Amino acid sequence: YNINWNYGLLPQTWEDPSFANPEVEGAFGDNDP
């Protein structure tokens, strides 16, 4: 598994669950490399 994309598909995120990024179709924000 590639966690760099896998976590982006989860309904919950470990970065900021209250902010949905519109640039990625409502996926939750992450600034982690």
TrEMBL record:
The organism's place on the tree of life at top rank: Eukaryota
A GO biological process held by the record: phosphate-containing compound metabolic process
InterPro entries, A to Z: Pyrophosphatase_sf
SUPFAM superfamilies in alphabetical order: Inorganic pyrophosphatase
MF terms (GO), sorted A to Z: inorganic diphosphate phosphatase activity; magnesium ion binding
GO cellular component, one term: cytoplasm
The name this protein goes by in its record: Uncharacterized protein
Native source organism of the sequence: Nymphaea colorata (pocket water lily)
